[in-house]
């Protein structure tokens, strides 16, 4: 069983979003960092943010609030979609006020009910959209969190591979 996601849009020839479109590349990059921030452990994210110096001021546009979303699945990844169940999420929206790029807004949705995690992720999303902070946040927050996630995936894959059973059928000499 897999969780349903939106299918990738086919490449457009009319100037729409595709792999060669810089806006599309920027959107994919933002999706990647938002995914890393949302999936990171709250404590790891807070530790990484603590290493950044002189963070700009920000105002909370939409305070962190908890809610639920319906998760949909497909049997075998190909069957008809069905409602798998509800999942708790927390969302937050902030706007930077202490930078030259004061109109920058950061968004975050995180699984669970951790309001501080959502606010921290929204702040990092906003900072990553600025020229002044992008490189530092990517180097000190995003890359280390991505490495932690990759290490966890490798460890989990190793544990799964260790329990793999290979079944085979032997054919007897009967006709």
TrEMBL record:
Residues 1-27 are annotated as: Disordered. Pfam families: PhnG. One of its GO terms (biological process) is organic phosphonate metabolic process. The keyword Iron does not apply. The keyword Lyase applies. It comes from the Bacteria. Coiled coil: none annotated. GO terms for molecular function: lyase activity. Keywords: Lyase. NCBIfam families: PhnG_redo (TIGR03293). This is Phosphonate C-P lyase system protein PhnG. It comes from Hwanghaeella grinnelliae. The gene is phnG.
């Amino acid at each position: 069983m897999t969780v349903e996601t939106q299918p990738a849009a086919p490449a457009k020839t009319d100037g729409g979003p595709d792999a060669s479109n810089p806006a599309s590349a920027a959107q994919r990059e933002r999706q990647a960092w938002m995914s890393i921030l949302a999936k990171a452990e709250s404590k790891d994210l807070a530790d990484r943010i603590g290493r950044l110096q002189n963070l700009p001021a920000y105002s909370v546009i939409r305070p962190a609030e908890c809610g639920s979303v319906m998760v949909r699945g497909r049997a075998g990844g190909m069957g008809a979609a069905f409602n798998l169940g509800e999942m708790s999420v927390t969302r937050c929206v902030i706007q930077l006020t202490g930078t030259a790029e004061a109109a920058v807004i950061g968004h975050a949705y995180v699984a669970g009910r951790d309001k501080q995690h959502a606010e921290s992720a929204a702040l990092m999303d906003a900072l990553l959209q600025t020229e002044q902070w992008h490189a530092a946040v990517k180097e000190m927050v995003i890359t280390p969190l991505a490495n932690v996630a990759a290490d966890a995936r490798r460890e989990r894959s190793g544990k799964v591979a260790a329990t793999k059973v290979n079944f085979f059928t032997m054919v007897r000499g009967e006709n």
